[in-house]
Write a structure and sequence with these properties.
heterodimer; A: mainly beta; 4-stranded antiparallel β-sheet; 3-stranded antiparallel β-sheet; globular; B: alpha/beta; 5-stranded parallel β-sheet; 10 helices; 23% helix
Amino acid sequence: MIRVGAVADLPDGEAVVVQGEDPIAVFRIDGELFAIDDTCSHQKASLSEGWVEDCKVECPLHAACFDLRTGMPSGPPAKMAVRTYPVVVTDGVAFVHPAAVPATA
Amino acid sequence: MRSVTVVGASLAGSSTIRALRAQGFDGRVTAIGAEPHLPYDRPPLSKEFLAGTMSADELSLLTADDEQSLRVDWLLGRTATALDTSTRAVTLDDGRRVVSDAVVLATGARARRLPGPTPPGVHTVRTLEDATALRAELRPGARVVLIGGGFIGAEIASTSAKLGAEVTIVEALPTPLAAQLGAEVAGAATALHADNNVTLITGVGVSELLPGAGTSVRAVRLADGRELPADVVVVGIGAIPNTEWLAGSGLALDGGDPGGVLTDAGCATDVPGIVAVGDCAASYRHFTGGVLRLEHWTNAVKQPSAGAATLLGAPAPKPDVPYFWSDQYGSRLQFAGHRHDGDSVELTDCGTDAGERGFLAVYRRAGQPVAVFALNRPKPFNRLRRELAAMATAPA
């Protein structure tokens, strides 16, 4: 498990990046935590720097949108999903499981 | 409603088809595209595609699943020439008439050209073919002159410089982008050109393009008499909406030449069953409380949800804050909201050296934030964009 940090320290509506095999962005949205690949599936950009709305993150580079729950793109220009990762909270501290959730599509 | 004709097969048109299907429309969709291609993404044409790091296939806006999920009859390489609003019939350049229950106007815009004939070697960039032709001429050491220092000009300058060309930008205004960003912010943002050894000449217009001994362009003559030697000239002086074909239709257009199609916030024109989206639409915006024609990529992706909802009688999506971005020299420029001359502006978080250049600019009117611009400051930009979005959705 990869330690993310105290949930209370994560600003709501934003993300922090932890290093798994690939960088993982952990978003806190209305108190809930979501972990996805930090690198956009379209071109190299950090999704943790993206714009979050309605549980979707929009890539800061080309505005590709991904559902934080499923990793699925909601339309152009991205065509591939990003991976999602399980997040657990123990005693107020968030951890990410480094193995991605198998894609459901 | 059992059938829809979408006039325009680029981002706004394809996004409308996506939105119609996502909102449950099961009827027939016919899409008319002037270009011979299925929908493709244009922003990379001045950047990754022009640089040669992205292929034409990668530009596609459709996925393998889309053929089945979108179910579109594509009529490509065909231009719409007339619209009969009473029967919702679209006439094509081959004489065919496409009649349906609803029509989506998504004809976009095209690159504005210099008046009069131009010698070979003078480019505009709007289509895949445009970018392919320019790319073939961007050799290391080529002398490239950009006419117009707006976003497209700046992006092409950036890509050309990266490919080893000697690049000069000529801008008629004292500061490029001053109309969009205000002089102070525009000045700070366009310092990127000097950082990257691109020459920026401002406050002087172009009087003539001089052909060489062959036929190709040899130089650009400026209004003050200076001559800039050039192997390649790229004209980036804006876009004009593709709406001439609607002139006799009776649809209400705005005062532009040609005019954008006037719509309400839901993309409805003044004729029931006809909506307009994207670059060709002059739509009422809740955020500004007025009509604006926007040429932003994000507008062409988001407006279609509203247009589709209007056609299907579904609830309108929440209003958007205008947003666009630009990538230049590895830097990220982002803008959200809408500014007017006279808005106050405050720059913070400034890095002024080449290599770490960046800042955040907040525009205010009567003390309230109305727009935000960032150069390489994505996180604080997002915070402010969120504030603007909250204001846009607050009840009036």
